[in-house]
Amino acid sequence: MRLTNVEDGHKLKYRLILGAIGLSVGRAPDIVRVLMYRPEYFGQAFGQLLQKALRGDSFWTVGERELFAAYTSAVNECEF
Description:
This protein is mainly α. The protein has helices at residues 4-8, 12-25, 30-36, 43-55, 62-75.
């Protein structure tokens, strides 16, 4: 089930970005649409958390963390 507002309720800036994504790879993934819908409530904070988790100080390299994320997504049958 897709929420109408998250599907079509983006501000102009994000509609343009989603349109560009649509031209290059087809429909933008749902996670991108969620992050761009009212980012002040969720997208910015979640993006900062992801950056800290994948790019912050760690025993593992950035590449290893990306590999862990890709493997976990594959095991969960998720394209992200």
